[in-house]
Amino acid sequence: MSQYVPPGHLDAEQTATLLGITRGNLRILVHRGQIATAGGTDRHPHFRLEDVEALYAERAARSGRPGGPVRPVHQPA
Question: Which long-range contacts (CB under 8 A, 24 or more apart) does 54-57 make?
């Protein structure tokens, strides 16, 4: 069953995909305080798109990869 994700937010699967990590690694980043959840539930958290973009840019800068804004994810209406 699909969970409602408010505009400007991503679910955990979308966030992990955009960051190129697994959902398990995403949980570790949350636990370490590197990204905060912005709603949802413990099992189905939501993340602010701005926070995901900032983390992506930070990780890209540290690794030397070209970074830029995260591409928008199509969210069903």
Answer: 55/19, 55/29, 56/18, 56/19
Q: Give the separation between CA 70 and CA 66, rounded to whole angstroms.
A: 12
- Per-residue pLDDT of 51-62, as tens digits, reads 999 999 888 888
**Please, are residues 70 and 56 in contact by the beta-carbon 8 Å criterion?**
yes
Residue 15: what residue type? T
The letter for the amino acid at 1 is M
Closest CA to 52 of 38, 41, 65: 38
Q: What is the pTM of this model?
A: 0.75
Helices (H) and strands (E) in the chain, counts: 3, 2
Q: Which helix (H) or strand (E) holds 23?
A: helix 23-32
